[in-house]
Design brief:
- The chain is of the alpha/beta class.
- It has a single domain (2-125), classed as Dinitrogenase iron-molybdenum cofactor biosynthesis domain (Nucleotidyltransferase, domain 5).
- It has 4 helices and 7 strands.
- The protein is globular, with a radius of gyration of 15 Å.
- Residues 10-102 form the Dinitrogenase iron-molybdenum cofactor biosynthesis domain.
- Keywords: Nitrogen fixation.
Length: 133
Amino acid sequence: MKVAFATDDGVRVNAHFGQCSMFAIYNITKSSSELVELRRIPDISTQDEFGKIDSRIEAIADCTLIFLMQIGASAAAKVTRRKIMPVKVQFGSPIDDQVKRLVDMLQGKPPMWLAKVLRAEEEEGAGIHGSNG
């Protein structure tokens, strides 16, 4: 699964969703993790708050989880509607530590919130999503 981390330095989760300068995108499985890319958010000073939120959601549209420090209520609602689960972590949490924790959770018995996300991702991938049967 692809996981985004709201960051200003590519090393730590140290940014609010609506103000981060980039997302570190990782591909995480039970057996491995790799940094796919750093997706920089263009600084468009003419964008209003909704435009900023929408451009960030588009930047992480292919991700299953977004690790961040903070997210506003309206942004959180938009993110979850796109089937992306926001995960709040402590300011300055090293991304490597969060990735390792996630891999460990996948290898063991994932907590209920993660199991639910994984089930939804599997159903979507199998084409079960939206079927009548």
